[in-house]
Amino acid sequence: MKYLKPKSVTWWAGLVPLIGGVIVAAGDTISPALSPLASFINAMSGDMSAAVMIGWGAGLIGLRGAV
Prior knowledge:
By secondary structure, the chain is mainly alpha-helical. The chain has helices spanning 9-29, 35-45, 50-66.
């Protein structure tokens, strides 16, 4: 349970881009039904790639686990 800290702001700040990156990746390749949501997330993130969002999210969650 080292990385699961739902009362931490850093954990939530990491979870949001992680989930957003997964939705963008799935909306582009796997599920066309997620395409409108993926377009919205791309517009809100400044067209950041899914890999970068997932990397930032995992990094913040890992940082929270290390502290």
